[in-house]
User: Fold these one by one.
Assistant:
Number 1:
Amino acid sequence: MARVGRPRNFDRDEAITKAMHLFWEKGYEPTSLAELKAQLGNLSSASFYAAFGSKQQLFEECLAKYMTMCEALNQPLEDTSMSARSAMYAMLKKTIEAQLDSQTPKGCMAVLAGLNCDDDNQAICRASEQARHQTRQALVRCVQRGVEQHELSEKTDVLSFAMVFDSFLKGLSIEIRDGATLATLTQALDFIMTMWDCHACRLD
């Protein structure tokens, strides 16, 4: 019997993007295999597994694509030509705008799509956690640079200070899904940046 392959005109990159949006919108476990196959052009089971291996492997590939997209958002954090404060603000502002983009699901896939998985899907939780950890580490490096460049006090608890901004970043997804506007979130961002300014005022 001939092996069932992909349908004609199958664009794998386009399929990954469509699957990514579905996982991003609904989460890993609520997204059924039937929904994925339908979204990807009514693929047969054989064609789906031939193309992607498994639902888990497809999610991991989608998450990797999403994190590649996020590299542009995180780029200011690594830009040493900017002050650390300016870098932090720019990254958070760009993230707010991206998560509100009408062309993609709202919020952050790494925050929303891989939570509350059952025991059989803990690998999904770990993959999502690792993705979030990458962003947290970029925030830590930015705060550390602020200390090293004497923008922040040398007494700054770098990890705790970075966690404040990381918590704001993760919370954006919920607020945006609940209908928060660009104006409201920008005001909140301006407010949280006063924490940086107040800490900077305590330079020795």
Number 2:
Amino acid sequence: MTTLLRVDASIRVDGSVSRALADSAEAAWRAEHPDGVVVRRDLGKHPVPAGVWQTLITDRFGWEAPGDAEFADLAAANAVAEEILTEFKAADAVLLAVPLYNYGIAQHVKGWMDVLLTDQGLQRGGDVAGRPLILTLARGGGYGPGTPREGWDHATPYLERIFGEVFQMDVHKAEAELTLAPVTPGMEELIEAAKESEKAALDHAGRHGTQVARRLTGAAA
């Protein structure tokens, strides 16, 4: 029996494309591995408390914490970090659903990742190296080659660098673009392209879920 850690980051629930893609990946994973365990962390609903990382780093380097710091209780910060790190390192696979906000990752995603990066084992790539990670990504506009916003997606390269290169995980991506077309004036002509992008991403997410489950259970691909 294996464990899938699912981490959602969208501040939306209904209508969230990144969550829908993660649903597709999870459903495919469950279909191949019905006895598997899914552990959930919802950063969109329950962000890491403010100041956890600051407290941890201040203590590590022996700096003096400001007396009016938002989160200066070291024991509490360590407890939060231990929970985050334990569930991440215990997972056989990770499913991370991330929307693009303001051309990057939202502060609540960065806060969670900052806690992961306090762990020296993860930093050396030894604790989770080789483990599969599925990224389900949603972008409101178009950021591909030749588009006006090419190069403005600062989230995906960062996520790939941290999880793929620092943590040395096996990263799989399912990406949907133009997700804001149906609700944004001036993007009406892109609605069909948005639907096609989401449909393809849902298919990719499902295939990634199947592939990861079969790899973990030793089933034929």
